[in-house]
Write a structure and sequence with these properties.
With 470 residues, the chain is an alpha+beta fold. It is built from 9 helices and 24 strands. It has 2 domains: 89 residues, no CATH class; 333 residues, no CATH class. Helices cover 20% and strands 28% of the residues. The strands form 5 sheets. Strands 4, 5, 7, 8, 15, 16, 19, 21, 22, 23 and 24 form an 11-stranded mixed beta sheet that branches. Strands 10-11-12-18-17-14-13 form a 7-stranded antiparallel beta sheet, with helices on one face. Strands 1-2 form a two-stranded antiparallel ribbon. The radius of gyration is 29 Å and the shape is flat. It starts with a helix and ends with a helix.
Length: 470
């Protein structure tokens, strides 16, 4: 085309007046089409080609959104143009996706035809497709190293044990009940990342297209509004995290001095929101932001804070935040961490403001499956329990005690009837980290005689993949 873009736009609008609504977006689309057809004139054929291009892009974008309902809210919440008429696709992809800044002006992201897709579920692979399960497995939350103080506990290596603290030996008491074991194999599941589709380019600072075979693996959205949030998307892990944009939240203690500050910091356990109130706050946030609850069970409030160390005769200090857990489920079965804790999506609620402070472990639940040799003899399960090393549980002896301890203390752990479930493992083979889910038994701890009051371990997880018990 020999005419400039403005002249072409004017002629297109003369042919189809409805295009005037999308004049600004048309400029990019026309420029792209003009490069492909430099000698074309803006006639009805050209308009038809333009319509077809835009409509195809809109249809593809909507299919991409519908393919993974987990991420469609993230892709749609800031569109500043709505679908309307035959050229509705301009609003979404002409040629890129447009977001609104604070002043409301549309600014194109450095992307064209870019999307995140969840891979198809129940992708059955050949046996032992994920390699050896015996390669290094990372303990969840460093469970083997913590002191048994609950989430966020310090690493035991950071605290040398003084002479007045003793690590007990642990004895397990359980009934050798009938176990429904697999005949020969179990299906191990590998959670898949999101698939990034499309190229990234058109950025003034750098020619991103020069980096071939690249894709966006992580990105974040920052909400520039009062009490706004930051949304962090990790495509490689298939996870989303939400946390406060602290620039948009008031700091209650910023200008506070004196005894009043202490009163503001201290939280009376009697003033904590009820469980029903916490659940309502979490549910409302999830509903507002379209977070997909498929693959999660009924939520409940975590109360591990009540097991924190505290002076005798007093109650534990109430935390500034409480967590609502939406337990993860696969094939209708619960999912546990290796430590015996339920896995799932956690919503943190600020108990002072009764607002959500963060959401963690929003996960894409798309899996590959592969059969692995299974444990078929009950004795192997019970032998594993007998040899199980409980995370360190320090036993406190008062510092002013003159009593000599002749024997190390013993903790007797009584186990209940096991539950069949999935156990989550984080596997690292030196180059790649994989998240695997292995069928197994969860033996609940029903009594812990001799353990300190803050002992929080709730269960022992026994995997049924043979190589994990060797």
């Amino acid at each position: 085309m020999t005419q400039d873009i403005d002249a072409i736009i004017s002629e297109l609008i003369a042919i189809d007046p409805d295009l005037r609504t999308y004049e600004e977006q048309l400029r990019s689309a026309v420029a792209t089409l003009a490069k492909e057809r430099p000698h074309a004139e803006p006639d009805t054929v050209f308009v038809a080609a333009l319509r077809q291009r835009l409509q195809e892009q809109a249809t593809q974008r909507m299919e991409q959104q519908g393919f993974s309902s987990l991420f469609s809210p993230l892709l749609t919440m800031k569109y500043i143009y709505a679908l309307a008429g035959a050229v509705a696709g301009i609003a979404l992809t002409a040629p890129g996706m447009y977001f609104a800044l604070r002043d409301g002006s549309p600014v194109p992201l450095p992307t064209q035809q870019y999307a995140l897709r969840a891979q198809p579920e129940d992708d059955q692979r050949e046996p032992e497709a994920f390699g050896s399960l015996s390669v290094r497995m990372q303990e969840d939350s460093n469970a083997a190293e913590v002191l048994g103080l609950g989430g966020g506990s310090p690493d035991s290596k950071a605290f040398p044990m003084p002479p007045s603290m003793h690590t007990p030996s642990v004895q397990y008491d359980f009934l050798r009940t009938q176990l429904d074991l697999p005949e020969d194999t179990v299906d191990v599941l590998r959670r898949m990342p999101l698939v990034a589709e499309g190229a990234v380019h058109d950025m003034d600072l750098i020619d991103l297209s020069s980096f071939r075979d690249s894709y966006v693996s992580n990105f974040s959205l920052t909400q520039e509004a009062e009490q706004g949030y930051i949304v962090q998307v990790n495509a490689r892990d298939g996870t989303v995290s939400i946390y406060r944009n602290m620039e948009q939240w008031p700091d209650l203690l910023y200008d506070c001095e004196g005894p009043e500050c202490e009163r503001m910091v201290a939280i009376d356990s009697d003033d904590l929101p009820t469980d029903n109130e916490l659940l309502a706050i979490a549910d409302a946030f999830i509903l507002k932001h379209g977070i997909n609850l498929q693959g999660y069970g009924e939520p409940f409030v975590l109360d591990d804070w009540r097991n924190q160390p505290h002076p005798e005769g007093s109650l534990p200090a109430a935390p500034p935040e409480l967590q609502v857990l939406y337990p993860m489920q696969i094939d209708g079965l619960p999912v546990y961490e290796q430590s015996g804790q339920l896995a799932g999506m956690a919503v943190s609620v600020d108990v002072r403001t009764e607002t959500v402070s963060g959401v963690w472990n929003i996960m894409n639940q798309s899996f590959q499956r592969s059969a692995y040799p299974a444990i078929t003899e009950p004795d192997a399960v019970f032998d594993y329990i007998q040899a199980y090393e409980m995370p360190a549980v320090p036993m406190y002896i008062p510092f002013d005690s003159k009593e000599e301890v002749s024997e190390e203390p013993v903790v007797h752990i009584s186990l209940g009837v096991p539950e069949y479930a999935y156990i989550r493992y984080h596997q690292f083979d030196g180059t790649e980290q994989r998240e695997l889910f292995v069928p197994g038994f969860i033996f609940p701890i029903v009594e812990s005689d001799g353990a300190p009051s803050y002992f929080h371990h709730k269960a022992i997880a026994v995997p049924l993949a043979e190589s994990l018990l060797e």
